[in-house]
Design brief:
There is one protein chain. By secondary structure, the chain is mostly helical. The protein has one domain. The protein is 76% helix and 5% strand. Helix 3 runs antiparallel to helix 4. The longest helix is centred in the C-terminal third of the chain and has 55 residues. The two termini are 37 Å apart. 9% of the residues are buried.
Length: 200
């Protein structure tokens, strides 16, 4: 049975994409190995334990996965804030209309409008609470995903570097001083970004 032209094109495209992906992975692996070799050379033999450190604040700033998580969280917060703002605007409009028309309204109409305003107040409070809980839950999930994935990357990277420990340093953290010759932050950022790109 003959293959139609669209089917042949699809097969060709899949082949091209597969070859392109393999080439990209090979280039990435060569770059990664070069960075890893450079870091391993920084270890001084005969000192017993080999320890390096990474500035966590700098990693958060330049690590692509961290940027993506931050962007997603900001987007979720803005989305929730906009929903609440829209409810507040509707509420304020209703209150102004009520105040303006109140002098010429009958008692029954006043009661109905006041009831409508109270219901909208309650709805706003409920929506605000629900969105706050939803955003908090999403933040927790994204943060956990970031921590687990980054830890997984660091286990791979750490194992290939030959250090006994790679410590995390940040201003105000537990580590008060670290000799800058043991700072491998920029190299770790490169390796983390490479691991993240190949895992997408």
């Amino acid at each position: 049975m003959k293959k139609s032209t669209p089917q042949i094109l699809i097969v060709i495209l899949i082949s091209i994409i597969s070859v392109s992906c393999n080439e990209k992975k090979e280039v990435s692996q060569v770059e990664e190995t070069a960075v890893e070799k450079k870091i391993v050379r920084n270890i001084e033999p005969g000192n017993g334990m080999s320890i390096a450190f990474v500035n966590s604040d700098t990693v958060s700033k330049y690590y692509e996965f961290a940027k993506k998580i931050q962007k997603t969280l900001t987007s979720k917060r803005l989305e929730a804030e906009n929903q609440i703002k829209n409810k507040y605007f509707a509420y304020e409009r209703l209150v102004k209309e009520f105040e303006k028309a109140s002098p010429i309204m009958g008692d029954r109409e006043k009661m109905e409008k006041a009831q409508k305003i109270r219901l909208l107040e309650q709805e706003i409070m409920q929506v605000e609470q629900q969105l706050s809980e939803q955003v908090s839950k999403q933040e927790l999930q994204l943060t956990q995903s970031y921590i687990l994935k980054t830890n997984e990357f660091m286990q791979e990277i750490g194992a290939s570097l030959g250090y006994d420990y790679v410590m995390s340093f940040r201003i105000g953290g537990a580590m008060l001083y670290a000799n800058d010759k043991n700072n491998i932050t920029s190299d770790i950022i490169k390796l983390l970004n490479q691991r993240y790109e190949t895992s997408k």
